[in-house]
Each structure stands twice: as C-alpha cells, then as structure tokens.
Amino acid sequence: MRFLDYAFEGGVLPAHIDLRRHDPVSGRASTHTLILYLSDCDEGGETAILRSDLCNSLHEFDGGARSWGGGTNGGPSASKEGETSEVAGGPRDGKGGAPLAVVAPRRGRLFVFPHRCLHEGRRTVSVPKVLLRGECYMNPTAVTLQLARTHAG
What we know:
The chain is of the alpha+beta class.
C-alpha cells in the first residue's frame, strides 16, 4: 500500500495502467487496484477510467470494478447532490470518447478496478486529496457470485 497526498492545487496523474505486484511467498500476481479515499475533494481530483484496447466497454469494466461508500453497493454511489460514481462523460479518454467511469474522491469511498484499465487522476482543485492505493488479488468467479447475491436481495 502507498499513501498519497496531493497537498497542492493542480496535482494530476497522467493516464496509465497499473502494474501487477507479485507475492514473494505464494507467487500470486495482483489483479486489481484499490483506492481508499481519506479526504473529500469538493472539486477536481477524480479518478477516471478511460477506454483502451484492454478495457474498452462498460460491460468489461463493470464486470471487475466497484465503488463503495457514500451510496449503494454496486450501483451509482451518490454522496452529494448531483454527484455519482457511475459512468460519466468527460473531456477525453484513451480512445477519444467519453470515459467509462469517473469517481469523485469522498472520504471513506473504496474504488476497486482491474489493473488492465487505463486510468488517470484528474487535476486537483480542492485540496488536500489524500488516499491509500494498493493492490489486491480477486477471484473473478467469487466476485461475480457475491455481487449476484448482493443484487438478488
């Protein structure tokens, strides 16, 4: 895990894909990135998932990414009027269209997405933006079963 603190206005993280980490004991490779937001940003600082050759549809993205905190599990996550973590438009993405998702930093919000998804940290306006970033190992079958149980009632 890494602790990131964007203390000054204007901090950005250009579009990139996260690398897998390998457990030295088991040899397992991480599959997903997790971001736990530790502060609110009233403006800016969003994490945007961009279309790319490895992650180019909402179905593919949605099958492996979730945002929890400030709303309902597995769906749009509204924590302030007019703000959601569902699919939203934006000025650019890796393939020239709208991003697959834009997640606003809200304290306590956990965002998990596959490493293969191109993403960027948008310009911070309200500071500080503070977060923990790490990797996790997810079994896609187990995640799908758990989400099915969650949405079944």
